[in-house]
Amino acid sequence: MARAACAGGHPMGKSSGDRRPIQGCGVRVTLQPDPPAPGEGTPTVSLSAAPGRPIRGARLEVRGDMAHGAMEPVLGQAGSGDSQGHYQEA
User: Fold this and answer.
1) Where are the beta strands (DSSP E) in the chain?
2) Is 60 inside a domain boundary?
3) Domain count, the chain
4) Quick check: 58 and 13 in contact, CB under 8 A?
5) Are 62 and 76 within 8 A, CB to CB?
6) Cα dihedral 86→11→64→73 (10° resolution)
7) What is the pTM of this model?
8) Residue 49: what are its φ and ψ, rounded to 5°?
9) Facing residues of 49 across strands?
10) How far apart, in whole angstroms, are the C-alpha atoms of residue 68 and residue 54?
11) 9 lies in a domain?
C-alpha cells in the first residue's frame, strides 16, 4: 500500500504550521527493480500539478514500513529533484 499527499506551506520554505492540501496534485511512485525483488530498491516519486505540470523544488520525506512490526521503519528524504518533477532519496 502506498499513501501520498501534497501540502503547501510557506513560499520561502520556512515552517508556517499551516499545511493545506494542494488540489489537483498528482503523485506517482515507481520502483526499481521492476518488478520488485528482495533486497534494496530505489523508489522514484514524481509530482505534478494540474494539468500535468511538474512540481520542482519540493521537500519530500519518505517512509518505508511494514504493518507487522518486525521491521524498523526506513526513513529518508528525497533530493532536490529534476526538471520533470522526479525525486529520489538523497
Assistant:
1) 7-8, 20-21, 26-32, 42-49, 53-54, 61-64, 74-77, 86-87
2) yes
3) 1
4) no
5) yes
6) 150
7) 0.69
8) -105, 155
9) 53
10) 35
11) no
For the stretch 70-79, pLDDT in tens is 878 888 888 8
AA identity, residue 72: E
Residue 78: inside a domain: yes
Query: Domain residues for 40?
Result: 20-65+72-87
**7-61 residue pLDDT tens:** 665 444 454 455 556 667 888 889 899 998 888 888 899 988 877 789 888 888 8
pLDDT digits (tens, 9 = 90+) for 33-44: 999 888 888 889
User: Between the CA of residue 29 and those of 7, 10, 46, 77, what are the distances in Å?
Assistant: 17, 25, 6, 14
Residue type, 45: V
Residue type, 86: H
Q: Does residue 25 contact residue 55 with C-beta atoms inside 8 Å? A: yes
Task: Tell me if 56 is assigned to some domain.
Answer: yes
